[in-house]
Amino acid sequence: MDNLKNYIADNRERFLNELFELIRIPSISSESSHKPDMYRAAELWKEILLDCGADRAEVMETAGNPVTYAEKIVDPSYPTVLVYGHMDVMPVDPIDLWESDPFEPVIRDGKIYARGADDDKGQSFMHAKAFEYLVKHNLLKCNVKFIIEGEEEIGSEHLPEFCKANRELLKADVILVSDTSMLGPDIPSITTGLRGLAYWEIEVVGPNRDLHSGLYGGAVANPINVLAKMIASATDEDNRITIPGFYDKVQEVSSYEREKMARAPYDEDGYKHKLGLDALSGEKGYSTPERTGIRPTFDICGIWGGYTGEGAKTVLPSKAYAKISTRLVPNQDYLEIAQIVKEHFEKIAPPSVKVSVQYLHGGNAYVCPVEMPAYKAAERAYTKVFGKEPVPVRSGGSIPIISTFEEILGQKSVLMGFGLDTDAIHSPNENYPVEQFLKGIETIAWFYHYFA
Amino acid sequence: MDNLKNYIADNRERFLNELFELIRIPSISSESSHKPDMYRAAELWKEILLDCGADRAEVMETAGNPVTYAEKIVDPSYPTVLVYGHMDVMPVDPIDLWESDPFEPVIRDGKIYARGADDDKGQSFMHAKAFEYLVKHNLLKCNVKFIIEGEEEIGSEHLPEFCKANRELLKADVILVSDTSMLGPDIPSITTGLRGLAYWEIEVVGPNRDLHSGLYGGAVANPINVLAKMIASATDEDNRITIPGFYDKVQEVSSYEREKMARAPYDEDGYKHKLGLDALSGEKGYSTPERTGIRPTFDICGIWGGYTGEGAKTVLPSKAYAKISTRLVPNQDYLEIAQIVKEHFEKIAPPSVKVSVQYLHGGNAYVCPVEMPAYKAAERAYTKVFGKEPVPVRSGGSIPIISTFEEILGQKSVLMGFGLDTDAIHSPNENYPVEQFLKGIETIAWFYHYFA
């Protein structure tokens, strides 16, 4: 492993150029017009993994977007690592807030700016390059399998079916994933918990056409007003969710564990400052790390209805819509929550409108035990590269497939993320520091060394 | 007046073709890209009125869109009628719901389908043709002035200044306006009251960029959730507006007048059926005609924020917006309400977001006394043409400039409207029955006869 640092330094430009080629494919999974780009990305991943040293790689169909599978079986008696990543990215709107083309990566101030630079093209590509190093230098003492999917940003809808159909192919001792963040460039951390997710679209229909708000206003229910009331009623003054049954299965975290969490570095003023906020807001009785780590949420991700153009058009609209998401915590079942929330909104709909709620996707929360050998190997790898032992962190994000892997493949995942809070994933000007990218490759290579 | 009916019948095709030429100009005042169309419409109105017999017509500038002024002074000792109309129209979205091009009028089932067919190109054009008949047959015993403006649909912002600057030019004994409806094709009615209006845009800003709803959700206020709460809190369970001071100056209508209103024809089942509604909804303690006629409203005309595209993007958005309108009733001052509402929303904004409220436009409510000679003349004209005495009706709509005319020019307006409830003004497939158009011309001609 002596020449690892040099190898990475010597191949830096090539690594970046190869990553940029992957980023240039606008593989936005939520927009059906980008379907051909999903196939382009899958084919490119196949080439990448073969070039890096895989014995076998192929693009495999699912009922949705394709999956790229690859493997190198060094010795059947060795332990097997399954690397999971995703080739799909989020939409880019609002496009006018991007300082450069989201699909033409550029490096500014040491950061790669592009959609997918971090999430998850940049992070998953590190695995290819760590693998390349180990194969080339005959240092790989594990079997490695790769599964790169194309539907993570839309809830990995077809991956569970794929896993069920390919249990033997995907058999491994641990799953390795880089799709999370560290607390800071100098504060290595490993995500040991993920929140679950459930997501709905709600439609409120009032009159059968847009009406004149003067002639009808006051006598006909306005779908936007009704939608606002329904949304508003879902949380109370303490920012607790009021939907009956919502908290029933929430795992209450012990005061011992909450005390331990409170010791993790957290700078509230800095946090507010970075977001441009005068005040934070969340569930009463919980700290900010607790609000994002161990408590569920109720967020409106989008809302629309009526006249949204320039100037002052008066109208009593026929329809209003919202996209609603909740983050879930351990023991909440996302399918149960999906049903509870749907039924709640349909039940509280006043008779003056018609409300329909469509469940779109979700997944359960996940917890990784810190005693696991693979976690310990990751811990040593971070310590080696960053010079500090990584902090275990419960993240607020969701990677629904992680809990599904546990259910279907019976394997825990270790979340070796190298993103930073400032990477603006899912936002305009997503970026990924080149330094994190290179250190990530180094850390992953060390993981294999310690894990084997 | 003997040949009036024949004249209208003989010239029917020509009248329609001339109107269609006017309708084909997409004079949408709320969209600045249509500014040149406002000038085209103003020039066409000048030609129309000169052709109909005006002594003088000109396009006059304002600080906004131009105004067409025309006049025929038959004898300075005669009474003078000022005809007011507007050449501008509402936007056409949602465009996909139109069955034919909104700016290419077609006649289907005896109705003219086009944006502006009723509001207000069709209705104001009737005045030109009634005027033409009277001039051509030397029957005009009044002086007539026309003022056709281009900003009615955006609140007539620059017309008050124009009126102040041209008080002498616009001097008249009464103002005549066709921009309202009748209760039905066989139920002639004259609008004797109009609601006022105030309109705002509200902006709620949370974090300085769109955030990952997993990493930040629960700890950072979501501007859409906050906006929904603010809007929801503005009305209570009885659909009364909760903004302090909002009702302070509302004129309570006497039980005598409410009883009289209750005698006007109103078919609740038919009303619901036409709108496709199972139930109506409005302020507790008031009937539907009262809710639209004598009570103020609080309607969200538009709302937007976050992800509104296809599929399930999770995001905690940076901003959310709504367009809010209230309809006002006599004695409420729209500028006072503008301020009260703005201050209220800015005051109740939680510290976790920044809220700004921009007042966009408004006007006061209006009441026309039924004892006025001009009202009596209109009443006789409707009776002559429709065979029934017209019902006086308080409409829920607003024509802000009507109360401004009273304030600046010191003149009451008579609202001789011929629209129908089914005309879908401000909506897709706006239409105007040819029969109403022709009867309107006839009724207006008789008005001059009786008024003189």
Q: Any overview of this molecule?
A:
- The structure is a homodimer of 452-residue chains.
- With 452 residues, the first copy, chain A, is of the alpha/beta class.
- The first copy, chain A, folds into 2 domains: 4-194 and 365-451, 3-Layer(aba) Sandwich (Aminopeptidase), CATH 3.40.630.10; 196-250 and 296-363, Alpha-Beta Plaits (2-Layer Sandwich).
- Chain A has helices at residues 4-10, 12-23, 35-52, 121-136, 159-165, 223-232, 255-262, 268-275, 288-293, 334-348, 373-386, 400-409, 434-451; strands at residues 56-60, 67-72, 80-86, 106-108, 111-113, 143-149, 174-177, 189-194, 196-205, 299-306, 319-328, 354-363, 366-367, 391-394, 413-415, 431-433.
- A 6-stranded mixed sheet of chain A has the order 1-2-6-3-7-15, sandwiched between helices. Chain A has a 4-stranded antiparallel sheet with strand order 10-11-9-12.
- In chain A, strand 1 (56-60) and strand 2 form a beta hairpin.
- The longest helix of chain A is centred in the first third of the chain and has 18 residues, at 35-52.
- The mean pLDDT of chain A is 95.
- Chains A and B meet through strand 9, helix 6, helix 9, strand 10 and strand 11 of A and strand 9, helix 5, helix 8, strand 10 and strand 11 of B.
- Strand 10 of chain A pairs antiparallel with strand 10 (299-306) of chain B.
Any low-confidence stretches of chain A, pLDDT <50, length ≥5?
none
Distance between the termini of chain A: 13 Å
Look up the CATH topology of the largest domain in chain A. Answer: Aminopeptidase
Shape of chain A: globular
Strand content of chain A: 15-25%
Please give the largest β-sheet of chain A.
Answer: 6 strands, mixed
Number of strands of chain A: 16
Q: Give the mean pLDDT of chain A.
A: 95
The oligomerization state is homodimer
Read across the widest sheet of chain A, the strand sequence of neighbours is: 1-2-6-3-7-15
Q: Write the CATH architecture name of the largest domain in chain A.
A: 3-Layer(aba) Sandwich
**CATH C-level class of the largest domain in chain A:** Alpha Beta
Query: Greatest chain-chain interface?
Result: A-B, 99 and 98 residues
Derived from helix and strand composition plus strand pairing, the structural class of chain A reads alpha/beta
Number of helices of chain A: 13
The radius of gyration of chain A is: 23 Å
Approximate helicity band of chain A: 25-40%
Order of helical and strand elements of chain A? HHHEEEEEHEHEEEHHHHEEHEEHEHEEH
